[in-house]
Structures are given as C-alpha cells and as structure tokens.
Write a structure and sequence with these properties.
The complex is a heterodimer of chains A (about 525) and B (about 475).
Chain A: H1 5-23, H2 30-47, E1 54-58, E2 71-75, H3 80-97, H4 106-123, H5 128-149, H6 153-182, H7 194-208, H8 226-240, H9 256-276, H10 280-300, H11 304-323, E3 326-327, H12 329-334, H13 337-342, H14 363-381, E4 388-389, H15 395-415, H16 429-445, H17 465-493, H18 497-514
Parallel strand pairs in A: 3-4
Antiparallel strand pairs in A: 1-2
Helix pairs in contact in A: 1-2, 1-4, 2-3, 2-4, 3-4, 3-8, 3-11, 3-15, 4-5, 4-8, 5-6, 5-8, 6-7, 7-10, 8-10, 8-11, 9-10, 9-14, 10-11, 10-14, 11-15, 14-16, 17-18
Chain B: H1 3-18, H2 24-44, E1 50-53, E2 56-59, E3 63-66, E4 69-72, H3 78-93, H4 95-98, H5 102-120, E5 121-122, H6 127-142, H7 151-179, H8 184-202, H9 210-217, H10 220-244, H11 246-250, H12 252-273, H13 279-299, H14 305-331, H15 339-342, H16 350-364, H17 371-385, H18 387-412, H19 426-444, H20 450-453, H21 456-459
The chains are: A mainly alpha (about 525), B mainly alpha (about 475).
Chain lengths: ~525, ~475
C-alpha cells in the first residue's frame, strides 16, 4: 500500500481543504494544512527507496472471471523520479502561490493537489487498464477546468479539440491492449507484446502533441502560472510515464525510423519556437512539446531511462521556470542550474538521455533541438525585470517563495546522483559536449542575430502551414464521407426506402448463404 | 400468489389504474414506486421457496396457467426482474422531469409487463406475439390521436409486425429440424426464417432505418424507452432460442452470419453517427451500435457470452435514460434538435448537457463510465478470436466518438460573455445527477453488477459450453 500513500495523502489534504473552507470560511491555516500534507507526501516518497519495487493490485475490481486484469500500481527505479518530481512540484506550487495576488484560494490548492494525486497514480500505473482509468479521470477534470476558464466559441472549440486528441490517445492505448491480447500476451506493461509497443508510443505521442505534430493545449487559456502550470506539466507527465514501458523489441519495427523522423521535426520546430517565444508562459506549450519529443525519441532509441530523464526535466526545470513569477536576481541566476540539468553532461539529470539509444542519422538533429531548448531556457530564465518584487511581501512569503523554487532545483541536482536507474551516469560525452557548445553558440548569437530575436506574441500559432494543409485535407475527406453517408441515408429513409431495404436484405442473405452447404 | 401474477399481472393492472390519474407528477411517482417495489421484491423474495413471516408461512409459486399456456418465472429470473424493474423505475420517475405525459407511465407499465410475459411464456415461441403486442402499445406513446403518424412510426410497426410470422413459422419448422436433424434443406430454411425474424425484431442492418427516423419525429424520451425495452427483451428471447436449439449454436454458417450482422451494425451505426447533426438521430445510431455489440456478445465463442450480454444490457438502460432525459430537458429551448439550434446550450443547461455527453461517452466505452467494463471484456474476447473483428468494433466506436466530440463542441460554442446559468428544475437536476452518479459507479465498480449476473448460467445453461 506504500505506493498509494502519497496520492492518498494529497487527495485527503485536498478534501480537508474543501471541507475546512466550506465549514469554516474564516479558517486561516488552510495553506499550512496544504503544505503539511504535501510535505508528508514527499517524505513517504523518500521512504520508497530501499523498498522498491513496490506493487499493489486492487483485485476487487475483477470479482469474477470476466476481467483478465486488475487495477494495479508499480513503483521502481523508473517511476520513482516521476513521483518525486510531481510531489516536489506540488510543494513548489504552494510555496510560490504565496507571492501572487490570488493567494487565498483553497479551491485552487485543492485542485492542484488533486491533479498531482492523479498524476502520481498515472505514473505508477502497472497496466494499460489502470492508466486508461487515470487518464480518463484526468482528461475529464482538464476538460471541465478549461471549459470554465475560456470564453468565446473558438476558444471553447479548441478545448474540445484538445479533449478529442486525448480521447484518441486513450483509444490507441486501448487498441495496444487489444493487440497485446490477440497475440496472447499478459496485460502488464512488464510483459507487453512487442507488436503493441509502437501503439504505446503513438498513444503517448498523440496525447503530447508530437505524433502528429499539433498543440494539444489551447494557448489562449486564462490559466496562467500556478494551476495552469500544474495542469500542463502533470498532464504531460501522465503521458510521458508510458514511454518508460515500451518493450525494447517493439522499436525494431520498420515504422520506427518514420516515427523518429516525425519526432525530430516536432522537436526542432518546438525548440525553435520556444527559443523565439516572447515570454515563458506563451512559449510553455512549445517547452512541453520540445521535451516530450526528446522523450519520445529516447523511447524509440530504445532508451527508457532517457525518456524518464527528459520527462523529469520537463517537470522540474519547467516547473521552476514557470512558477518563478517574482523578480529576484539570485533566484534567476539559480534557475540556470536548469541548463545544467538539460545539458545531458555527466551526472546531470539528463545524463542518460543519449546513452544507450540508437538514433542513427537523427542524432545530430535531436542535439540541435536540445540546444535550441536549452538556449531558450537560458534566455527566459535571465529575462529582464518588470515583474513584482519580493520586497513588498511579508517575511514568511519572502522565505517561502525562494524555498519553493530552490526545492525544484535541489531535486534536479539530487536526481543526477541518487535514487533511480539513470543516476550517476556519465552519459554519451560527444553528444552532450556538442549540445553544450551549440547552446553557448546560440546564447552568444541571440542578441546579435535578428533571426533569433523573440517574436511578437500574436504570431505564435498552434501548427505550421503544411500541417494546416494536412488537417484541411482530412476535413475535406470527412466532408466527402459525410455527403456519401447522407446519400445512403436519404435513399434508405426516402419514399422507396422499404424497397431498397429489402433489396439490401436479399443481397445480404445471398452473400451469407453463398458459402453454406 | 404466484410470481407471474406479481411481476406481470400486477404491473399491468397498476398501469391501467394510472391511466386514470390526470396529474403527471402523481402518475410518475406512483409508477416509479410500483416498479421500485417490484424490483426490491424480485431481489428480496425467493420464488418457489417457503417463507416464514411471523407465524404465517407462504410460498410464491413460479407458474400460472393461462389459456393452456404457462407463464413461468423461476428463482433464477429474480435478478433479471430486479434489473428490468429497477431500470423502469428510473424511466418512470423521470417522466415529469422529461415533460412526458402520465400516459407514458401507464402504457410503459403495460409494455414492461407484456415484455416480462414474453420471457415467462412457455412454450417460449409464444413470446413473439407478446413482443408484437408490446410494440403495438408503443404506438399511442409515439403519436397522439390527433397527429398523423410519421414515416418512422409506420416503418417501425411494419418491421415489428413482419417479424412475428417469420419467428412463428421458423418455430414450426424447428420442430421438424429437431425430429430430423439430418435434413439440411429444412435446417437452412428454418435458419433463414429465424434470421429474418430476428433481423426485423432487432433492427439489424439494413432494417434499422426506422430508428433514426423515429428519433427525429417522436418524443426523445419515449423513443429512448422504446430503444431500451424492446431490444433488451428481444435479446433475452434470442438467447432462449440459442439455448434451446443446439444446431443454431453449433452451425458455423449461422454463427458467422450473426457475428457478421453484429459487426456490420456496430461499424455502420458508428460511421453514420459520425455525420449526424440531430441529437435524437445521434442517440438512435448509438443504440444501433449497442444492439450490434449485444448481438456480438451473444455469439462470441466464450463461456462468458451470456454474462457479457447482460453486462451490456444494464448500462444500456442507464445510458438511454440519462441521454433521453437530457435531450428532453434541452428540447424546451431547442426546437428542432439540430446542431444549429443547440449551439452554446452548455452554458444555459450545464447539467443536462453534461449528463447527455457523459451518456454518449459511456456508449463509446469511455473508461470510468458504465459502458466501459462490458465493452472491454467483449473486445478482449473478440480480439482473442480475430483482430479483424476487434478492428471493426474500433471503427464503429470511433465513429460514435466523432459524433460525441462534435456534439460537445457545438454545445460549448457559446457566444462571448455568455454567463453560466442553471435552467434545469430541481427534479431534472436530481434525476440527471443520480443517473450520472450511477454511470460512474458502475464504471468504477463493475463488480456491483455481479449479483445480477451470477444466476444467468442457470437460465441459459447450454450457451457458452
């Protein structure tokens, strides 16, 4: 049960916050309850060390012979860094929210803790059934949250489109499960059929917006730093965790180079747009897209530790950057530790990124994408002033806020050395050195080359023009099929419909009886 | 007292009495209470077992004789009766919330009792006239005396009526098949007759075009009730055939034909649903997909086929109740129920729209919702037989998903600055809320359906062997 305790603590804390707020609106220690619960959760996560692998199965779900699988959770050296990263993110959100104007909102804190609780369940899911249930809960929660936060028909439509791509991802995962069953495999990730492995990659890629390239999130959402960052990062983590479960034999398929090609394009496109984004919040979807692309490339390597490393970097480095809303010179400089975490240099968080994978001719392009992302990160971390200052805040806020940011930085550092399969790794030095040199070059060139300068916010569009063309083509095909369906319907439901129906029936029977004795 | 009197005659009489209650709310409550009591009784009172109530001992016998035929409800029928009357309770309590008339309750009770009689009658071939009578009783619900019947209603009654002679005729031929099993000509003729009868009854492609037509021209709540009740009992009737006649189960040609018909219904229903722009028609096509899944479940080569079929029946009732009620609530502000009229209604009817969309997602098999466990089991069983079958199910469900996403998009595309409002009445909100909670409860805890499924192998002991 140890594996479920962090999630349960977060859910219980969220419930307590809601009850307290409804029963005693004047209660002043809600924030401390939230922080206390989250700290306890992190403490339990550290207790996992030495007890892994952890397993728990809720057998009551399959009370009969009907169900071949049960809801199960699994914790090991690949899931632990995700769990730790998400738990730390929860605490950082609570610490940094203290410095923002919309501080006293227990519902937002409860929402954050619940989302992260669901995220923990997603990253520890041991089989597709469990992951399907958690993804669905998460997607419904995200749909409701976003629909409440947007206004206008086109923004609402984009929320539904984002939801539909998530549903398609769920469908692909379900199909992977079915393919695995048809080849006689058992239903745990650890023994998944190789034939189904690429469907798992496609499911994660679709949900993350990498395969095919699209932005799954409506960029005009009004959810900004605290809750918005949680929603985006936890959502990405819940999909990225799947990449650690891809069977190595699956990627020996002839489709793998094609998927790697698409992933590389997505990584470069996202890295380029992230580098030139006017600010980190506008660029946030491209940060997620870029690092998710690198994670998928690692999974296709096959290099599961690399995929986990990129996933944790997405949460920890991105979390620190997006949650830093206050101007603080030393903190801005401390954020640069994130560049180290992203560099894939020895003993960094992402040291295992290029280690064991086979990327062929795509490796140089992936390194370019990595350099673009790191250079963009440095630019956004060292952004000019013009924000609120901590000086006007009360003493406890001045302490809590930096503590939150530093926590994420410490965890990045810690994961380079301790606690999981990718720790204390030297990595692949040629790749990491090349990426670092390229990053320095880009940082040097950014103020000097107009091409690399930030662009205005309004042009940051969700997809490139050739993809627009592809989607328009698909829409045209849909329209054509729609007209065909209407023609069939009009025939069958028209005045002569019964005659047509009987004709079809006769055809049907003759077809079916043709082969019969 | 006998079981058929309690679960067939009493509800019929209650329906007749309710016909004279002018107040819809009272009729709805009385109808709901009657069916709830019948459902509880089916769960609590064992049939054919002596019971001691204080010093009084009594036993509910299982059989009653009428016109030389017997109506038999055994102890194994208890869970089915509880399921049927439990779902009917939801339909009848929702009558006022849906804006239907009190006549819906009275005729609905009569229809349910006739349909229960169809599963109780011995010899079971006499179920066909019962089903026909039930179909005839639906007509006054679908069209008022002053109204001219539409094309969908006419087709519905034509197809249901055509089914009866085919089934009765095939029953007569089946007796011959049993006497001389080697007569291949007679066997195939009776197989075709039987297939045609059930094709009309279950509205198998291409005989299902009355469903979307009816869903467009009649009250969505009544159509929802019809799409729940008739196929459920027809499936139970069909399971009876499969159980009685070994050659139907063992004939590979017939079994393949049934499986092919089911797959075609799932795929074609889903594809047509993807292009619909009318809420009622969307519900109609979703019910076609569900019927296709039930047909597949009946003939899937697995010892679990009966359980899977019934696992599909329970969520179907719930989904259609919530879906039809949701449409009925919205209908007051959106006539006709086309996409052009319903745009942006999520902000003015959030509960009805939410419930409707969740019911739609449940029919797709969205995880967490009631439809998911049954679809997962069926899909897994079919995949272990053939990945092609599983693929066609995927096509059908993807079509339904497209329809759901389009519906949701239209609902939420409200003009800018439209405030959120709550226009549902308390009764509507409570009914929809209860429906949604049960959808989630079954999806999250499918083992709650286990008491209803445990006795089924005793009812259809030959299927799945």
């Amino acid at each position: 049960m140890l594996i479920l305790i962090p999630s349960l603590i977060l859910f219980l804390t969220a419930l307590t916050l809601i009850i307290l707020h409804l029963a005693r609106p004047a209660f002043r220690y809600g924030w401390m309850v939230a922080v206390g619960g989250t700290m306890l959760g992190i403490l339990v996560v550290f207790f996992w060390q030495g007890r892994m692998p952890l397993n728990v199965s809720l057998h009551s779900w399959r009370s009969s012979t009907l169900y071949q699988e049960a809801i199960s959770f699994h914790g090991d050296g690949l899931t632990w860094p995700f769990v730790l990263s998400l738990s730390a993110l929860a605490l950082t959100v609570l610490f940094t929210v203290a410095a923002r104007s919309a501080f006293a909102n227990p519902f937002a804190w409860a929402g954050t803790l619940s989302l992260i609780g669901l995220g923990l369940l997603a990253v520890t899911s041991a089989n597709p059934l469990t992951l399907l249930l958690v993804w669905s809960a998460f997607d419904l929660a995200e749909l409701l949250t976003l629909l409440r936060s947007v206004d206008g028909p086109s923004a609402s439509e984009r929320v539904v489109i984002a939801f539909s791509t998530r549903l398609a991802g769920i469908g692909l995962l379900l199909w992977a499960n079915i393919v695995s069953i048809s080849s006689g495999s058992t239903l745990e990730f650890t023994s998944f059929s190789p034939q189904a492995g690429l469907f798992l990659v496609a499911a994660a890629g679709l949900r993350l917006g990498v395969l095919p390239l699209h932005l799954p999130y409506p960029s005009e959402s009004t959810l900004r730093r605290g809750f918005g960052t949680t929603l985006r990062l936890v959502s990405a983590a819940s999909s990225l965790a799947l990449l650690a479960h891809i069977p190595a034999e699956s990627v020996n398929s002839s489709f793998t180079p094609f998927l790697l090609f698409l992933t590389t394009i997505a990584a470069i496109y996202a890295g380029w747009t992230w580098l030139r984004a006017p600010d980190e919040l506008i660029g946030r979807p491209f940060w997620i897209l870029g690092l998710a692309s690198l994670a998928i490339a690692s999974a296709l390597g096959p290099n599961p530790t690399g995929a986990v490393a990129w996933g944790c970097a997405l949460i920890l480095v991105g979390g620190a950057l997006f949650l830093a809303s206050v101007q603080h010179v030393w903190l801005n400089r401390a954020l640069l530790l994130g560049a180290w975490s992203l560099s894939s240099l020895p003993f960094s968080l992402t040291a295992s990124a290029w280690g064991t994978g086979r990327y062929g001719i795509f490796l140089p392009f992936l390194i370019i994408a990595q350099a673009l992302i790191v250079a963009g990160f440095v630019r956004h971390a060292l952004r000019p002033g013009g924000r609120d200052s901590l000086d006007a805040q009360p003493d406890w806020t001045r302490n809590a806020y930096p503590a939150g940011i530093i926590l994420l930085l410490l965890i990045q550092f810690l994961l380079g050395f301790f606690g999981w399969d990718g720790a204390q790794n030297l990595g692949y030095l040629p790749a990491s050195i090349a990426a670092s040199l390229l990053t320095f070059g880009l940082i040097w060139a950014t103020p000097r080359l107009r091409l690399l300068n930030p662009v205005r916010a309004h042009w940051v569009k969700p997809a490139s023009s050739w993809l627009d063309g592809l989607y328009r083509g698909l829409w045209g095909l849909y329209g054509l099929l729609g007209r065909l369906s209407q023609a069939v319907t009009a025939t069958l439901e028209g005045a002569s419909g019964i005659m047509w129906t009987l004709l079809f029936l006769a055809l049907f029977i003759s077809l079916m009886t043709q082969g019969a004795p | 007292m006998s079981a058929p009197v309690i679960w067939i005659v009493l509800p019929f009489l209650a329906g007749t009495v309710i016909l004279f209650i002018p107040n819809t709310r009272v009729a709805s409550i009385v109808g709901g209470v009657v069916t709830a009591l019948l459902a509880l009784a089916a769960l609590a009172i064992p049939i054919d077992t002596a019971l001691l109530l204080g010093s009084v001992s009594f036993k509910i016998s299982s059989t009653v004789q009428i016109l030389g035929r017997s109506l038999l409800l055994s102890a194994a029928d208890g869970p089915i009766l509880a399921m049927i009357y439990g779902l009917a309770t939801l339909w009848f309590f929702g009558t006022e919330a849906a804006g239907s008339s009190g006549r819906f309750v009275s005729l609905g009770l009569a229809i349910i009792s006739l349909l229960v009689a169809s599963i109780a009658v011995e010899p079971f071939l006499f179920a066909a006239p019962m089903l026909e009578m039930a179909a005839l009783l639906v007509v006054p619900l679908l069209v008022s005396p002053q109204q001219k019947p539409g094309r969908g209603i006419l087709r519905f009654i034509i197809y249901q009526t055509l089914a009866m002679p085919f089934i009765l005729f095939s029953g007569w031929m089946l007796a011959g098949v049993e006497a001389s099993p080697g007569d291949i000509g007679l066997t195939s003729q009776s197989g075709v007759m039987l297939g045609l009868g059930f094709a009309f009854l279950l509205a198998i492609f291409p005989l299902y075009n009355w469903i979307p037509m009816l869903a467009e021209e009649a009250s969505p709540y009544v159509v929802g009730f019809l799409l729940w009740a008739l196929p459920v009992f027809t499936v139970i009737f069909a399971l009876g055939f499969l159980d009685h006649y070994a050659w139907i189960r063992t004939s590979p040609g017939l079994s393949n034909a049934i499986q092919f018909a089911g797959l075609f219904m799932v795929a074609s229903g889903g594809i047509f649903a993807a292009f619909q722009r009318h809420l009622g028609r969307m519900m109609g096509y979703a019910s076609i997909v569900e019927t296709g899944l039930m047909i597949l479940a009946m003939v899937v080569k697995s010892p679990l086929s009966v359980e899977i079929t019934f696992m599909l029946l329970i969520p179907r009732g719930l989904e259609l109740t919530v879906w039809a009620l949701g449409i009925s609530v919205i209908q007051k502000s959106a006539q006709p129920l086309r996409f052009s009229s319903i745009q942006g209604l999520a902000r003015t009817y959030p509960i009805a729209v939410g419930a409707l969309v969740l019911a739609h997602l449940s029919t797709i098999g969205f995880p967490l919702l009631a439809g998911f466990p049954a679809r997962l089991v069926l899909w897994e069983e079919l995949a272990s037989q053939s990945l092609i079958y599983a693929f066609w199910i995927l096509v059908g469900l993807f079509g339904l998903l497209t329809g759901a996403v389009r519906t949701l998009a239209v609902f939420v595309m409200a003009p800018e600055k439209t405030p959120w409002a709550w226009n549902e009445s308390w009764a509507q909100s409570v009914m929809l809320g209860v429906g949604v909670i049960v959808l989630f409860a079954i999806g999250l805890f499918p083992q709650t359906m286990q008491p209803f499924l445990s006795s089924l192998p005793a009812l259809f002991e030959h299927i799945g062997q």
